[in-house]
Amino acid sequence: MTQTNALTLKQKLAGGEILVAPGVFDMISVRLADQMGFDCLYMTGFGTVASYLGEPDAGLATYTDMLNRVSAFCGGSRTPMICDGDTGYGGLLNVAHTVRGYERAGAAGIQLEDQEFPKKCGHTPGRRVIAAQDMVNKIKVAREARASDEFLIVARTDARTSLGLDEALRRAEQYANAGADVLFIESPESEKELEIIGKTFDMPLLVNIVEGGRTPQLTPAELQRLGFSIAIYPASGFLAVAQALEKVYGDIKALRGTRDTEKSLYSFAKMCQLLGFEAVWEFDRQHAE
Asked: Which residues form the signal peptide (predicted)?
């Protein structure tokens, strides 16, 4: 499969209905989410770095690491995908290189953030931001570098946690004026703050819903009413997987085996179907000696 419908994402954003995007972090999550009819998927940096490197999302993954995942995820999905591009992996030349690479790999959009390098995952402490003008320059370079304006630039600011909401709003306005397609103010801490963000900007807004994070859990309908266009749920999938693995591995370690938990597992037959084994078996039948 090849990602070819970035235009669809831009058209859906213009349609007025909120887009709900689950976080994908490995090829099983990509294939599962792709078959469920979502309007958009979100390649989570936290989950991707964790599953690919087994490391925290703290600036340890390189551009090459992440491009590898973007290429695999978008190549295995028909659903438009916004992919985490961190800080652009360096200076302005690196930002241009990153944008071109993500776009060629099939992403529908790239998320760029205004954190200092090495970045840290949103909703975690210790995040520091660069000068707003430096991020403005990144956005301008990103726009120049993309081959098509159907490839969306999602501009994220992490200023809310360390510098307050007013500074985050000021930065977001500058990023909008620089040409960002979607604004992403990370970690608002109340429904009132979400409301203020929604009323301040008349353009696509993204909200990040992290279970156990700083932003309140509202329904997509409530978020749309407040003015948001995209709601991402980056952590839900890998948190669910970790919980399930802890349970079944614990049963195996305790010598209980899996007989009592087998019915709660994803079926082996469905997994074979999900991963495309049926095509392999058909190929073998056609070419059996």
From this structure: none
